[in-house]
Design brief:
By secondary structure, the protein is mainly alpha-helical. It has a single domain (about 10-110), classed as Multidrug-efflux Transporter Regulator, Chain: A, Domain 2 (Orthogonal Bundle). Helices cover about 60% and strands about 0% of the residues. It contains five helices and no strands.
Length: about 110
């Protein structure tokens, strides 16, 4: 029987396994997304809370799933409207999304 008790704080190693990303990626994202700023304990280790983990999943979905650029994901996470992004950025995101959807359609057709 698996123990499903939630903890208040998780280490970077635990979070890395949970979200399927390397620790160095999480540390890099901290430099790119000001909303992702896990506090450190007395030993200087990052202590991630559930809200940090939820944000990491959101960023991962934007970057890996929806193919946003770092800048686009940063704007989305900060709550800026898509219209606040440069037109070139909006066009790149739309083209990426359309390309992904067309590839999914092709996969369905080829089955």
């Amino acid at each position: 029987m698996k123990n499903d008790i939630k903890k208040l704080y998780y280490s970077i190693g635990e979070v890395s396994k949970m979200v399927g990303l390397k620790s160095y990626v999480l540390r890099y994202w901290e430099t790119e997304f000001k909303q992702l700023s896990p506090p450190k304990n007395r030993a200087g280790n990052r202590t991630y809370r559930q809200k940090d983990i939820d944000l990491i999943f959101k960023i991962k979905d934007l970057l890996h799933g929806k193919k946003f650029t770092i800048e686009g994901a940063r704007s989305f996470v900060s709550g800026k409207s898509v219209t606040d992004l440069p037109t070139e950025q909006i066009n790149k995101n739309i083209i990426r999304q359309l390309k992904n959807e067309l590839n999914e359609i092709l996969q369905i057709i080829n089955k």
